[in-house]
Amino acid sequence: MMICTLAIHAEDVTLSGGYNYSIEGLTGSISVKFTGAYGEMGLCKALPISIDDYKGFRVEFDEAPPVGVQVKVQNATDVADTSYPGQYTQADGTSTEIAADFNTEHFATDRTITVINLQSNDANVTVNIKKVVLIKHDNTEVQTYYDTSVGYNKQVYIYSADVNFKEQYAMLGNWSNSSATANDTYQVTFGTAIGADVLQWKYTDGDNTDHYKNIDPGTSASITIEGAYSGLGIQLKASSATTINIASIKLNEEEEGGEGGEGGQGGDSGSSNNGTVSGGWLLAEDFEGFAAGTAITVYPIKYQAKGTATVDASPTDADGKAAHFVASDYNNIMEFSITLPEGKTLKDYSNVAFDLYRTATDTDNRQMFVIADNVTIHQDTGYPNQGAKETWVEKSYALDEDISVGQSFKLRIGINNDKGNYYIDNIRFKERVPAGTSYNGQVVNGWLIVEDFEAATSVDLWDKNGITPTGTGSIVANPTASTEKVASFVGGNYDTVLSISVTLPEGKTLKNYTDISFMLYRNSGDSNYKKMLVQADDFKIHEDDNYIQQAPATTWTEKSYPIDQNNTIGNTFNLRLGIQSNAADYLIDYIRLKEDPNATGISMIANDSEMKNNVIYTISGVRTQKVTKGIYIVNGKKVVIK
Ligand SMILES: [Ca+2]
Ligand SMILES: [Ca+2]
């Protein structure tokens, strides 16, 4: 059973062991990757030893280590000598053992051995150590254990099943990380459900502050610790001495898997696209890099933190992950650690956006908060509906040009609702762009950017009575991002709105899109309580039934409307949209169409193990449990099995 990886990046991290747990309980092999030339790791916990007690050693490997890997044996005299003498026994490239008697001539004077290390003269060499034994003069063998605190230029993976708790509390390891940053993530996941006897885990940060978290009995769990910890230990508390299975302990992302050939997965997560930029949007957090069940910090707007926040499977995609908040009181939202690219601060971005999915139980008409550290980016005025339930809606908020938030910060997002039950995904930031940079035609997060006005010099008007439009349409500077452009409409006659000529990508019609979205900014002089109209040519997408407040004044608000699929609008059309007002003074920007995932969304799934727990039909409509190569309908979605 090889589900355990313990991956420590040794360039800047050392594992110095723990207490009250038994490394003897590690039943599998330890895999060591030497990341640099002359990388080294300690092979022997029992040092110092005397050659009067032992005559030699043997190291067993799963496969023959390459020539260039050697065992180095030294005494204190050798260690003090900068020419590093000692006894070196090199791998022959074919044997799965490196073994030797201690050189009695070399150790004739100083008979106490202080170093037995494994060394690789070459970088990027991985070996799997099965067993290390010391051999006594009567040929009896004593198994010894690795001392992973010794050495450099190595990564250590331990492939194993179980760790024995000798007592109630066990420390799983101490890490020190001289170059730790606030964005580091330490993650421990359990390969099997942990027993009810493991109650709690604790970690101690670099300031020696203890942090505790309870574990739900009998459930698989993972622990995620984020922060700039220069020293860190993880302790589990059990009700009695016991054995638990550790699936993995990782610092940040494991660089690569499978080199040891045994890196099986236990509750592993998908790959994240964090850090990628698309259509001018930086994707900051898609949660794909987290294991399901990972705890998320709850941020209290006031009073103390309440509620449950975890990374869970996406409600619409069993393979995807999203942040899930279940409230138990008002004044709590989720908190995410964001680190922008090198040299950037929040001033370099004009918008923050994310996807919001409200479950059926999430109650309506509560306020959205978006806070970066202690700077409030957005708080709803009034109590608007945050969007349709049981579907993803995009929420986007403008960032002031003079916002003072640095490269790394805590982003606190959520709805102030004691009955809150919602998901957040794909937290992203729009780069402030130089004048004239348009992203029209690009697709960001499934949304086609139709018109951002960055390359526009004028905007047309349209009157629904077919008469000459009344009012003035123009391109003006964005009031919250002065280098950017937006469309302005001033005046009106209740029947005139903006008109934008749209050409969809080749082969697409309006039916390929399920929603339209744009940003609205009402200047302070804009007359309130008027109806919004959105139509494509003569096909009405949306018109308000009532005279509602479209948005609070002097802030950007996202407007989003579903598109009835019962339309015959083709590849090109005139998009007519705006507030039907006789005293209008508003801005519109960033008009987008949401791609229909059912029209375009054949997703790729790598193997059939990911298909478990799904409702699967063949393309001909026969329910099946087994899949081979081909196209299937999984949970109502078309999926290609490679
Ligand atoms: Ca996601
Ligand atoms: Ca714009």
Tally of domains: 4
Number of strands: 52
Strand residues, percent: over 45%
Which descriptor suits the 3D outline? Answer: elongated
Bound molecules: calcium ion
| CATH C-level label of the largest domain | Mainly Beta
CATH evolutionary superfamily of the largest domain? Galactose-binding domain-like
Instruction: Return Rg in Å.
Output: 31 Å
- How would you sum up the major sheet? 10 strands, mixed
Percentage of residues in helical conformation: under 10%
Tally of individual helices: 2
Could you tell me the CATH topology label of the largest domain.
Jelly Rolls
Give the structural class.
mainly beta
Distance between the termini: 27 Å
Quick check: average pLDDT? Answer: 78
CATH architecture annotation of the largest domain: Sandwich
Residue runs with pLDDT of under 50 for 5 or more positions: 1-27, 157-162, 173-179, 250-269, 600-613
Structure, explained:
The protein has about 650 residues and is mainly β. It folds into 4 domains: about 30-160, Jelly Rolls, CATH 2.60.120; about 275-430, Jelly Rolls (Sandwich); about 445-595, Galactose-binding lectin (Jelly Rolls); about 600-640, no CATH class. The protein is built from 2 helices and 52 strands. Strands 1, 4, 7, 10, 12, 13, 14, 17, 20 and 23 form a 10-stranded mixed beta sheet that branches. Strands 24, 25, 27, 28, 30, 33 and 35 form a 7-stranded antiparallel beta sheet that branches. Strand 36 (about 445) and strand 37 form a beta hairpin. It is elongated. The structure holds calcium ion (CA) (2 copies). One calcium ion binds near residues 287, 288, 321 and 425.
